[in-house]
């Protein structure tokens, strides 16, 4: 088993969300790689499918988070996906979970809610969970 911290991919078109999530996940001892669009993320994932979990915004210009998930599923990419969204559109959560998402959070959400979902997703993949139980201060 590797001692390397888990690598989490964050995909969101809002730079302030990306910065906040990067800081949060780093404080819990996770590695983070960020992407500003679904297209950028899929291109990188195709070249180097090394993520342990992906946190993806539902609503982005161009390709939506659900479209990203669909392409990942079609390509056989086995990376847990946790969706985040500020929009409350009917049926989106159900569609995401039915397609295999590991979780779904509506903004604003607590740090613990996101980290808890990531932790569960990592445990389901039987990857080592090498991050602190409490954020570093």
How would you portray this structure in words?
This protein has helices at residues 15-27, 38-47, 65-74, 92-98, 111-124, and strands at 7-11, 31-35, 53-57, 81-85, 103-106. The chain has 5 helices and 5 strands. Residues 127-137 have low confidence and may be disordered. It is an alpha/beta fold. It has a 5-stranded parallel sheet, with helices on both faces.
Break the fold down into its secondary structure elements and pairings.
Elements: E1 7-11, H1 15-27, E2 31-35, H2 38-47, E3 53-57, H3 65-74, E4 81-85, H4 92-98, E5 103-106, H5 111-124
Parallel strand pairs: 1-2, 1-3, 3-4, 4-5
Detail the poorly predicted runs: 127-137
How much helicity do the residues have? 25-40%
Sheet of most strands: 5 strands, parallel
Element pattern in H and E: EHEHEHEHEH
Number of helices: 5
Strand elements, count: 5
Q: Radius of gyration, rounded?
A: 14 Å
How much beta, percentage-wise?
A: 15-25%
Overall form: globular
Computed structural class:
alpha/beta
Question: How far is it from the N-terminal to the C-terminal residue, by CA?
Answer: 28 Å
* Strand arrangement, major sheet: 2-1-3-4-5
Short note summarizing the structure:
The protein has 137 residues and is α/β, with parallel strands linked by helices. It is 39% helix and 18% strand.
């Amino acid at each position: 088993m590797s001692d390397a911290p888990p690598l989490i991919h964050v995909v969101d078109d809002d730079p302030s969300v990306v910065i906040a999530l990067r800081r949060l996940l780093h404080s819990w001892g996770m590695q983070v790689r960020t992407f500003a669009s679904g297209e950028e993320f899929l291109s990188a994932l195709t070249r180097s499918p090394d993520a342990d979990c992906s946190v993806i915004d539902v609503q982005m210009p161009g390709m939506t988070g659900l479209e990203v998930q669909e392409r990942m599923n079609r390509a056989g990419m086995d990376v847990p996906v946790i969706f985040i969204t500020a929009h409350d559109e009917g049926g989106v959560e159900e569609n995401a979970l039915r397609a295999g998402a590991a979780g779904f959070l509506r903004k604003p959400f607590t740090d613990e809610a996101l980290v808890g979902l990531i932790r569960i997703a990592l445990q389901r993949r039987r990857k080592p969970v090498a991050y602190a139980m409490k954020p570093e201060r």
